[in-house]
Design a protein that fits this description.
Layout lengths: L1 E4 L12 E5 L11 H7 L3 E7 L1 H11 L9 E5 L2 H4 L5 H15 L5 E6 L1 H5 L4 H11 L4 E6 L9 H10 L12 E5 L4 H14 L4 E4 L14 E5 L5 H9 L3 E2 L7 H15 L4 H26 L3 E4 L6 H12 L2 E7 L18 E6 L1 H11 L3 E4 L1 H9 L4 E3 H6 L8 H19 L1
Parallel strand pairs: 2-13, 3-4, 3-5, 5-6, 7-8, 7-9, 9-10, 11-12, 11-14, 12-13, 14-15
Antiparallel strand pairs: 1-2
Helix pairs in contact: 7-9, 8-11, 10-11, 10-12, 11-16
């Protein structure tokens, strides 16, 4: 069933219409989050408890050769495990023991659930508790990366939500800024320099580069989200007393500027000092965006729901690149997290959830210049003559901040350029 619903609670967008759909979905596996999480936390290891298909997925998505000693692997559930002919817990204990003996550098081990492990009701939470007692001081946690989830980015959300209870309480009453969501190391370095220039030095990032360097979380923690798909993580942080700072996401010049300004306002930093700190990188970003804006202005774009990045991406493309969003679909529209984004998309058709056949019909009827979608839809649409952009590439690439604004726009200009060459 498809229904039009309105009445968002976010200020300024109460009358924004949202097309809510509940039907067949095209989703990518939540295990994919391991690809960027294992690069971020350099002393952690992600052990998927799943099938050979799970192993092939992670290996191909990460593009890492086995001899490179990646920080992920798969404990294979064989047919006898699935049939109940073997004790899966005994096999898991053996694999974990061998792994930690061979890799003494591992400080945190994540047991990652999959569709197969959930089908046989393997209790990974209990397994994590048991193994943690055997392998201290290694921290052993578990979360679900099952493909049954509504979007592949929920793998990161589940991972971070699992980590929140292990974070220490604050030792002082001083306010601290916590940046939440996986970003590239180079982006963290850029953000840190800008915060320091603004006069804000007590800034922590979650997840940290080392899984053991967990930030303190308490009532004086002020949270800025770097990613919009962290609903469970945000709830866990708020349960510890942390407060969310409403802000657009740091994509493009406008979004990044407003994101830093939200932090500055929360910490009573003078607007003039913020403007001085951001002036040079913002000017560089605007200049770098000029070429892509020329290519993208006036082009019509359609977003299928996939990553939950769709709304801030559409805002960036509309405001700073002159593109025309025809429909912006998202797997889940989180009103609190997107409160600062939604008013900037007035007049644009938003859809939440998915009925893939109906959305394909609308996409074909609108004939956009560019379609952003998951891998499962891209090739069929390309065969019909549509230019497409894989939404997963937008999660794998550094796209946050001023210095990456032109690179983000380039990701959308490239498929249009390719389509023009093929047309000739």
């Amino acid at each position: 069933m498809t229904a039009i619903a309105s009445g968002l609670d976010a200020a300024g967008c109460r009358d924004l219409p949202v097309l809510r759909e509940r039907g067949q979905r095209e989703v990518f596996c939540g295990l994919t989050g391991i690809v960027w999480l294992h690069r971020r936390m350099q002393d952690a290891f992600f052990l998927v408890v799943g099938s050979r298909t799970c192993a092939h997925l992670i290996q191909s998505a990460a593009g890492v050769m086995i001899f490179a000693e990646p920080r992920f692997g798969t404990a294979i559930l064989e047919e006898k495990d699935l049939a109940g002919l073997a004790d899966a817990n005994e096999e898991l204990d053996r694999v974990v023991h061998e792994l930690l003996a061979r890799r003494p550098d591992i400080r945190t081990l994540f047991l990652v659930g999959s569709c197969p492990s959930e089908v046989i009701k393997l209790d990974l939470a209990r397994a994590a508790q048991r193994l943690a007692g055997q392998h201290a001081p290694v921290r052993i946690l578990n979360y679900s990366g099952s493909g049954i989830e509504t979007t592949f980015t929920q793998g990161e959300d589940a991972c971070l939500a699992t980590m929140v209870p292990t974070c220490p309480p604050p030792t002082t009453e001083a306010a601290q800024l916590l940046i939440v969501g996986t970003i590239a190391d180079i982006v963290e370095d850029q953000f840190t320099r800008l915060f320091e220039t603004m006069g804000l030095r007590d800034v922590a990032f979650f997840p940290p580069r080392r899984s053991t360097a967990l930030p303190a979380i308490g009532p004086n923690t002020k949270v800025l989200l770097a990613q919009p798909f962290l609903g469970d993580t945000l709830r866990a942080l708020e349960a510890r007393g942390a407060t969310l700072l409403p802000a657009p996401f740091p994509l493009g010049v406008a979004g990044t500027t407003a994101w830093f300004e939200a932090a500055a306002q929360a910490f009573d930093i003078a607007p003039d000092r913020v403007a001085d700190a951001l002036a040079a990188p913002a000017a560089r970003a605007r200049k770098a965006l000029e070429r892509q804006r020329t290519e993208l202005a006036g082009k019509r774009i359609f977003f299928f729901p996939d990553s939950q990045l769709e709304i801030p991406l559409a805002r960036f493309l509309a405001e700073e690149c002159g593109m025309v969003p025809l429909e912006v679909g998202t797997p889940y529209l989180h009103k609190e997290i997107l409160a600062a984004e939604l008013p900037r998309l007035a007049g644009i058709q938003l859809s939440e959830g998915q009925d893939v056949e109906l959305q394909l019909d609308r996409c074909r009827a609108l004939a956009p210049d560019l379609t952003v979608c998951g891998l499962g839809l891209a090739n069929p649409l390309e065969s019909e003559g549509f230019a497409t952009k894989w939404s997963i590439e937008l999660v794998f690439s550094p796209i946050h901040g001023f210095e990456q604004a032109a690179d983000l726009a380039e990701l959308f200009a490239r498929p249009l350029r390719r389509r023009m060459r093929l047309a000739v």
